[in-house]
Amino acid sequence: MTTPRSGTLVVKTVDATLDVVMRDQLRHLTTTSLAPVTVAAGDTGRLDRVAARERVPAHALALARDPSPARDLRALLELVGLMRRLRPETVVYGTPKATLLAGVAARLTGVPTRVQVLHGLRLETATGLARRLLVESERLSVLMSTHTLAVGHGLRRRCGELGLPIDRIDVVGAGSVVGTDVARATAIADDPALRASVRGRWGVDDDEFVIGFVGRVTRDKGVETLVRAVADVRDDGVPARLVLVGLDEGTELLDDDVQELLCGDWVTMTGNVDDPAEEYSGFDVFCLPSHREGLPTVVLEAWATRLPVVVSDCTGLADLVAHGATGLVVPVGDRRATGRALRAVATDPTLRRTIAHGGHRRATEDFDRRVVWDAFTRYVERARSERRRSRSSRA
């Protein structure tokens, strides 16, 4: 007799995504109709901690972000075996490599509900043949999935512009699938002792204006634009310090002038931080001049911590941040415009308060994590119900 399918398998490329982005959400899902919940990801040393904290079984996969055909094939076989053993009713996957491999494995093993979470479009910074291949890869991922959930309305719109099957792509509410912990972030913003401690750890002087960034330190995130813009702000007499919080994913590939600037005593690179929430307390402004996004949780976190934000007008940011109301928006790759915006925030307290208040209100109204979690759960539940009705009608 065949064991009935039940539960949900969540697949990500690496455990860091489960550890940071889905913190507490996995445990929440175990209290819903999607339970039992199991996770699978490449293990960089965090997977056991995730399993213990979230109270979910976890399975290590031979997955890594970097291309590796042999490892990827092994991970695919591991996923097929895992899905055959678990017999989940639903598989939820996101991040490019996990999407492709988990989508294929779920199709091969007959998982009825396959939900892709589309976090962004890597193809936006690719050119030529690589771009065409990535477009077709995204199309295949959508077609392999029974449901695709984009994290933002701008991302869905961009998919349509690229000719992807937009009728198969949904967005829930204002966007996001994880939201942000507004209560915790607000408490962090209201703790002057924490701010002093964090800034002291960085060696920041009292009069320095800290421009903060959280994310992968790489060209795609606009780090070259950011570093040059902060250098310009300093040249204009603003005592600015740049703090980069996140994993170094290619500073050696950045332009020579940027690498030299990164060695300046006005730059602090913290490296990877397991829980960056408290780091925001040391910032005076948050800047994300990215080249591509889906809907960046880091902006929601900055808003919730009552920080003014400066962002680029790339996909995922241009439609999220309202210029002059919830932040300042500048053209992608424009160091001068980025510098002017940062200088305006540094020198105009009224502007700073206005956009910080507007951003905090937006985070509270649209992106509090409990609201987003419930919306995401209802979406997956509806997807599951649709598939059940479809199977019943064919029986």
How would you characterize this protein structure?
By secondary structure, the chain is α/β, with parallel strands linked by helices. It has two domains: 8-179 and 369-394, Rossmann fold (3-Layer(aba) Sandwich); 182-366, Rossmann fold. The chain is 46% helix and 16% strand. The strands form two sheets. The chain has a seven-stranded parallel beta sheet, with helices on both faces. It has a six-stranded parallel beta sheet with strand order 10-9-8-11-12-13, sandwiched between helices. The longest helix has 26 residues, at 369-394. The radius of gyration is 21 Å and the shape is globular. 47% of the residues are buried. The model has no long low-confidence stretch (mean pLDDT 94).
